[in-house]
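[#protein-structures] MJ: dropping DUF4291 domain-containing protein here for a structure pass
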Amino acid sequence: MHESNEIYAQYNDKTIRVYQAYNSKIAEECLRLGTFGPSFKIDRMTWIKPSFLWMMYRSGWGTKKNQERILAIDILKEGFNEILSKAVLSTYNSSVYLSYEEWKRDLISSPVRCQWDPDRDIYGNPIGRRTIQLGIKDDIVKKYVEKWIFKITDISEDVCKYNIMIQKGNFDLHMLPMEKIYFVDNCIRSKLGMDK
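AK: finished. structure tokens for DUF4291 domain-containing protein:
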């Protein structure tokens, strides 16, 4: 079965929500400043993920070391769209790139890396579709930190509560964030390997 590549996210007219997981020091700075502070390494690539459940899978529901604090970060859609427009796939795809050499050249020069991973259910099992995560660096991460972050919410307590409920078998799926397809233009779809 072909796994579809679509961006599922929680968004409105102005912003789209992405998730990141950090230790308490970085998280507390974020909450105090409304953006990332001095403990955040701005010269390194950072990964943003629109899928709540993929973030839960990756962080072990906030139980993995240095991923105990889950931040829901609402960023301006214009920023997210710029990120998508600069993205290069993290693995070679012959239906997107004319040659391996072209892809490699683009990958080295681009400030954004796009990776498609199996999306997950609440137990961490693949659900038959893929979800996007975006690695950003250089001028794009600077814009992210300085211009595009609209609001940061610490959802760590909710994540912890949900995890306990899942273990006990009394979690209600309606408690999950409502994520729907985020539509992008055909040029971006083609560039990110979203078309079959």
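MJ: nice. The mean pLDDT is 95.
AK: one more thing. Residues 6-187 form one domain.
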